[in-house]
Amino acid sequence: MHESPTLSWREVINKHSSVMLDELAVTLDSAFEAERNRSAEAERARAEAERARDAETERIRAEAERARDAETERIRAEAERARSAEQTERVRLATAESLNQMLRRLRQATSDTEVFELLAEAAAAYAERLVVLTTENNQDEETEARAVARRGIGEGDLTFPTSEAAAVASVLETGDPVTALASQAEISQALSGAFGDRQSKVYLFPLVARQDVVAVLIASGNVSAAVLELLCGAAGLKLETLRQAPALRPLPAPEPIRIEPRAVPATTAAPERRTWNDLSPEDQKLHLQAQRMARVKVAELRLYHADRMRDGLGSGDVYGALRAEIDAARNAFLQAFLSKSSTMVDYLHLELLRSIAHDDDRLLGEDYPGPMV
User: What is the pTM of this model?
Assistant: First the structure.
């Protein structure tokens, strides 16, 4: 029987050393692999954290930019609104000053011709082309319209029968503003050629004095209708004043003015009725001043509160629509004239009745307190 050789102690040690080295190598390889995996995982975690941090930083930056842009836009919008409001206010003040200057010059006008020229000058800022027409009867008793002032159109003859201009005839008949085409049928051949484009719109505004249309303003091209209507109303009031009292005579009446004391005791004899010629020169002067003040106060009501006045006329309650303004005018008239003369007449009441209520006291309203004397 063959027996395996006996290993020497050196061979046993070598064999065990080899096995231990192999196991150590495997252990070290495992440790190295685990460390590499741990390092890789840590690197991935670090990279992920860095990406998350970068994403958060980008989000915060984007939000900050959006907030900054929104705030910039808000500030820009507010600045734009402020500039727009400032510009609007400047335009409003300039317009108001321009109209105020025109009204001042109108008050100083002494003739119809001067009024028409002032109207054309002021209206030129609110229309590119305009003409002021008056009417008169020719030899054939036909009503003709004639240009007395113009801006932005030629200097040719602008005289034509009103029967050839339907829009002009309508304004003269009704006393209301009219909008029409610049055609021959509407404003005549002469005016149609002067205004150019016959398909463009023209605006016609009456100048009314003592309830009669004494002139017509025709305008086209970037027209500010509300302003032109206001200017025509002011010019009409001035024309009415020129026709009313050119020589500072008392207001016309169907019979002599009767002036009585405000109140007398029942036992006192009735006072003798007095006429204009019975007044002293000082009283006559005071009466004329009172008449002028009454006309001015009522003209201001018609000029500055036209919309409310029309509403009051429509509802039959002018006093209700203009209570504060009428009360202020009555108080001013009372302080200036009624308190200073026992012969004074309530001209303010007479002017309200004539110029606004058209001699129908019912239009003043049930609450109107009536004449002060």
Answer: 0.47
What per-residue string of b and e applies to 113-150 under the rule 16 or more CB within 10 Å gives b?
Answer: eebbbbbbebbbbbbebbbbbbbeeeeeeeebbebbbb
The CA dihedral of 297, 299, 304, 305, to the nearest 10 degrees, is: 90
What pLDDT shows up at residue 4? 55
Q: List beta partners, residue 129.
A: 220
- In degrees and rounded to multiples of 5, residue 249 shows phi and psi of -90, 160
Q: Which CATH fold topology does 112-224 show?
A: Beta-Lactamase (3.30.450)
> What are the structural domain ranges in the chain?
11-108, 112-224, 276-364
**In this predicted structure, what is the pLDDT of residue 7?**
67
pLDDT at 297 over 50: yes
Task: Tell me how far apart the alpha carbons of residues 51 and 254 are, in angstroms, rounded to a whole number.
Answer: 103
User: How far is Cα 101 from Cα 21, in angstroms, rounded to an integer?
Assistant: 116
Q: Is the dihedral of CA 11, 12, 17, 19 positive or negative?
A: positive
Pairwise CA distance, residues 2 & 341, whole Å: 170
Return the pLDDT at 189: 86
Which DSSP state fits 210? T
Chain position carrying tokens 């007395």: 148
Residues 372 and 334 sit within 8 Å (Cβ to Cβ): yes
> How do residues 6-36 score in pLDDT, each as one tens digit?
667 777 888 788 888 888 888 888 888 888 8
185 vs 318: CA distance, rounded Å: 39
Tokens representing 310 are: 């029309």
Could you give the CA distance from residue 361 to residue 354 in angstroms, rounded to a whole number? 9
pLDDT bin (cut points 50, 70, 90) of residue 117 is very high
